[in-house]
Specification:
By secondary structure, this protein is an alpha/beta fold. 39% of the residues lie in helices and 12% in strands. The longest helix has 21 residues. The two termini are 37 Å apart. InterPro entries: Aldolase_TIM (IPR013785).
């Protein structure tokens, strides 16, 4: 059994169980274009970005490590790793694809789509994700059968109505082909959404739970993913319904302590899943960074100890840290919407 299924089963039978699901979000090519894989660190004489083959090699190493439960990637990447290479056949890691790419994640180096209210859109077909091709036979077990569906509510009637209508259509297609999903709700991507900073967590929690009220529980998401707004909003959502397993998204890169402390705090207040993208991708050594994420949620080390230990590992690897240990042990502001 995949570790994801084992942990979800445990959490549904016992919501107070200590199981924690870690996901690595390597789906940046659905958002950032050429810059998606990130830049090598430290930079050489010529600044460049990793190529997609280099990025996929990072994914292979993360999957082989055993530190994560889910690898999230684009349909394009999974057509190589999952379908062509069969990377996940004998792995405890579950492959997942980004099932939609709303306009607030269209983040070209020069475009301004993210400055407009999010509009629903899907590049991916679910059959294509499951079987590797639009024309492949569906007579066998799907190779990839999990996807991330994302909604960004903006307190804008027309935009939010369109987002919910698209979610309704997606759910029907997913149910018809037996495709499973987890649901992500971002904070508004519009700065002028008419909500104060203290109201946004309430708006996200209310919008998410209201959206699921009209959905049969047979078709509820496997788990939820929202920004970590702090203890009270997380406790509120985690306590709302024991059948909803709640997780967090990482947001911007920030310091190492930002990631480690956020993870521990979210777990303390009810989160049972974390999906980190940029926090992992932008780390000096992503594989070591993920190892410490796992030791934190397993209760083997505190966030403060983990930052110091991570810097010690960088020293052993002869990788210069981006910040001094003192600076990297500070909390910094990280944005809550995907685009910022």
């Amino acid at each position: 059994m995949k570790t994801l299924e084992h942990k979800l089963d445990n959490l549904r039978r016992n919501p107070s169980a200590n199981d924690f699901i870690l996901a690595d979000a390597k789906d940046a090519d659905m958002a950032w274009g050429i810059a998606s894989p990130g830049a090598p660190y430290p930079q050489g004489d010529k600044q460049r970005y990793y190529s997609m083959p280099e990025f996929m090699q990072q994914m292979r190493e993360i999957v082989a490590s055993g530190y994560i439960d889910i690898l999230l990637a684009s349909n394009s990447v999974m057509s190589v790793l999952a379908h062509r290479e069969r990377l996940f056949d004998a792995s405890p890691v579950t492959p997942a694809i980004r099932a939609n790419d709303t306009t607030d994640v269209w983040i070209s180096r020069v475009a301004d789509y993210r400055d407009h209210p999010s509009r629903p859109f899907r590049s991916s077909y679910l059959h294509e994700a499951q079987y590797g091709s639009l024309t492949a036979s569906g007579n066998t077990e799907p190779v990839v059968n999990l996807g991330l569906y994302s909604i960004t509510f903006n307190n804008d009637l027309d935009a939010d109505y369109a987002s919910l209508a698209a979610f309704r259509e997606f759910r029907q297609e997913a149910a018809e082909c037996g495709f499973e999903y987890f649901l992500e709700v971002f904070a508004p991507n519009m700065n002028d959404c008419g909500l104060s900073a203290t109201d946004i967590p309430k708006f996200v929690n209310d919008s998410l739970t209201r959206a699921l009220a009209g959905v049969s529980r047979a078709h509820w998401p496997k788990f939820l993913k929202i920004p970590y707004f702090g203890p009270q909003p997380m406790e509120e959502l985690a306590a709302y319904d024991p059948e909803l397993i709640v997780g967090i998204l990482g947001g911007g890169s920030g310091t190492t302590y930002d990631a480690f402390k956020q993870l521990a705090e979210a777990q303390k207040y009810g989160a049972r899943v974390a999906l980190y993208g940029r926090k992992i991708k932008d780390a000096e050594h992503p594989l070591t960074f993920v190892r410490f994420l796992r030791t934190i949620v397993d209760g083997d080390i505190t966030p403060e100890e983990a930052v110091s230990a991570y810097h010690s590992e960088l020293q052993k690897l002869k990788i210069p840290p981006k910040r001094s240990l003192a600076d990297d042990s500070q909390l910094s502001a990280t944005e809550l919407s995907y685009a910022r």
